[in-house]
Structures are given as structure tokens and as C-alpha cells.
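batch job 7 of whatever, protein = GNAT family N-acetyltransferase
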Amino acid sequence: MYSKLIVSLAEHPQYFDDVMEWCYREFWEGPRTDSFELKEFLSEHLKKNRIPCSLVALCDGRPVGSVHLMEREHDSNPFFPCLSGLYVLPGYRKLGFGSMLIENALERARINGFSNVYLAADESITYYVSRGWTVIAPNEQSELYIISRPGRMSFFPTNPNILH
């Protein structure tokens, strides 16, 4: 049996390089991007108890996955906060780490005063829908769909005065 734990990157910055490598390789790398931009972006996730934040899945003390909770995922997505960049190392998939990361991100959003979390999904839409997310709108700017979880649909945070 594995020892599974989800931790905040802000409280465990020793995993920053692992998270940065996964993000760059899986989501960020391209002809017009560089790792400096990503490092700057992820550095904002090192502030404790705030959004944006990054969560890291640990298996027996080893980092095996991450997810990010952000104010916006895409400029064309008016909903927030957004779940983004869910990644689990291939050898650790189907062991529950993805679900644990998502649930911890949802709890982090609730603690910060948000009743819903959103994301823009493409081919991964079935993964999220099978876990209780609801499609609320096609994204007019791309082939993505905006999906929401949990609870009632709300276009605004429950407390708009909370600072992120």
C-alpha cells in the first residue's frame, strides 16, 4: 500500500522544480514559450493560503503529480477560480492521485470563499464529467467547454470581497 499525501507547493517549495518540469513539458512548451515565463508564473503560487496555488501529490514522500488553482485559466474564460494543469506521472495514474488533487483544490477554493471551481476542457471532458463536473457553456473562442464543480452554478465568488 502506498502512502498518499497532497501538500501545498507554497508550504513545500522543494518540489518547485518537479512541478515546473511537468508543467513545461506537458502544457507550456512551445515555439514561443520559455521556462523563465513559467518560473515567473509558478512563483506566484508560492504565497501561502492564497489563490493562485499549486498542490503536489506525494507517494511515499516522492512527488508524483500536481494541479493548479488560478484566477483565470484562459483569457477567454470569464469564470474563476480555475483548475488547471492536472498532471500525474504515468506510473502513478489510476491510483487516485488525480482525484485527490482535484478534491484538495476544491477544498482550497471553498476555504477562500468560492462555491464553484471552473475549467476549460477539451478531450479530457469525460474525465471531469464522470467525477461530478457539469458542462455549463461552450467556449466561444475555441473548441473548449467550460465546466463547473461543485454545487449550484454561480458566476461569482460567494464573497467577492475576498482578496486573492
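notes: The helical segments are 16-28, 35-43, 97-111, 125-129.
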